[in-house]
C-alpha cells in the first residue's frame, strides 16, 4: 500500500479557525514520559524530562463519524483507505464476504486486510456507521487527519500537548485518573478484557469502539484519551526523541524535527493512547506516557484522532 511521496492526499480548503468542542489548557510544566518503568524500552518512553508548554486548546473528544461525514460532504474528500480499497480490521469484528478478507498481517494475525473496509464501513463492506455517529472515526490515515484538521480550522496536537492534556493536571500518574487501572472494580476506559486475541469478556462493555463520551472525562474534561482508539499526533516518531532532549530543562514546546521528506507516506507518525485492543498480556500502551507510531499512510479500525489549536 506504499505509494510515492509525490502522490499526496487531495487538498482541501483551509477552514476559518474554530475552537468548537475544545478546552483551553493553561500553559505549564510537567514531567513527560514513563515515571513507573511500565513501558517497553523500544518505544522510548524514557528518560522522563520536564516539558514546558504554552497555553493551547484541544478537543475534549475524538473526531466522530458524524463530524468526519460533514467534512467529506463539504469537500468531497476521499480517504487513503478508500483509495487503496483496503484497510485493517480486527479479526473478531470483520463483517465482510469471505472473498473480501484478503490476508492476515505478518506477526499480527488478528489484523485482517479487508477489501472495502474504510471509515464508512469500519468492519468491512457489510458494516456501516449508521449506529456509530457518536463513535470515533477510524480507518483514517495521518494524512487524512491532517486534511480534516486543516478544513476544520484546527491542527493536530503535538505529542507533548497530547500527553499534558491526557494527564488532566495529575503529576506523573500512570492513567488520566490516577495510578490504578480500575476503580471499585469498574472500568474507566475501553481496552481488552479476557484472553487476547480470541476471547473478550466485554467487562467494559465494548469489543471495538465506544462512543467518544463513554467513560468519565479527566481533570481537563478530556474523554477517552487512553483506550478506545489510538490518536494521531503531529510529530514524526523517533524512539530516541526523549534521549535527544537530555540536557534541556525544561524542554520548551517540543515538536519532533520533520524528516527531509515530510510528505512521504512512509514517515512514521506518533500515535498516542492505545485502543480497545490493548491488554496487559501483549500491549500495555493504555497509559498516558505510552508511545507508538504508524506510517503516515496507514489506517486501521483502531486509529482515530482529536484536534488541537494554538491559544490564539
Ligand atoms: Ca473493551
Ligand atoms: Ca484514545
Ligand atoms: Cu495497545
Which segments are poorly predicted (pLDDT under 50) over 5 or more consecutive residues? 1-6
Count all strands and give the number. Answer: 17
Q: How much is the average pLDDT?
A: 95
| Protein structure class | alpha+beta
Distance between the termini: 38 Å
The hetero molecules present are: calcium ion, copper (II) ion
Pfam family, one: FGE-sulfatase
InterPro entries: CTDL_fold, Sulfatase_Mod_Factor_Kinase, SUMF_dom, SUMF_sf
Domain Sulfatase-modifying factor enzyme-like: 20-308
GO molecular function, one term: formylglycine-generating oxidase activity
Question: Can you describe this structure in just a few lines?
Answer:
By secondary structure, the chain is α+β, with helices and mostly antiparallel strands. It has helices at residues 65-75, 80-84, 142-152, 159-167, 241-244; strands spanning 22-25, 28-32, 49-53, 56-59, 86-90, 101-105, 108-115, 182-183, 186-187, 194-195, 199-200, 230-236, 251-252, 268-272, 291-295, 303-304, 308-310. It has a domain at 23-61 and 134-310: paralog of FGE (formylglycine-generating enzyme) (Alpha-Beta Complex).
